[in-house]
Amino acid sequence: MSDRPWLVVGLGNPGPKYAGNRHNVGQMVLDLLAERTGARFSKHARAQAVVAEARLGVLPGGAPGPRVILAKPTTYMNTSGGPVSALAKYYDIEPDHVVMVHDEVDIPFDTIKLKVGGGEGGHNGLRDTTKALGTKEYHRVRVGVGRPPGRMDTADYVLRDFSGTEKKDLPILVDDAADAVEMLLTEGLLAAQGKFHVAKA
Fold first, then answer.
1. Binding residues
2. What is the assigned CATH class of domain 6-196?
3. Which of 8, 16, 70, 78 could form a disulfide with 52 if both were Cys (CB 3.0 to 4.6 A apart)?
């Protein structure tokens, strides 16, 4: 594993109005990662984001995990790319060491998938990030929120809070996603996919 730092970004919308939305599950994961490391978010001087620096996880063999910059853009979702690009430039991090943690309607609630590159699936935060970075070749930790019921518009669905039933299992989903980020950074993409892409019993 490389000793280069990683930029891990949790996507969402700013402010308490949106904090519990499905669209903000990426930021929930970042909050847990910061809590695990004892890091605290603070406003970044050069980017519209709050950041926390830490070492994440433990490498095989017991050494501390890689240096990471945990980041939550303070812009709205559809303009996430600017802060991501600014942070990548500031910390001299190439796209292959950028990890976007985001909600994903194309996979079921309580499911985690990881990939590098590929399409954005209509996700405006990813689309803007791809445009700003000039490449699709960054890591994604996709946190399943499921499809909207009936004919509900997808945009309306992701801007609503999780249902009462979902809220009972949400801490487990967020915990799993945080584990997936740690495993990605300490053991690699294939190892993380091997663990988290297995169907739950």
1. 18, 76, 78, 124
2. alpha beta
3. 70
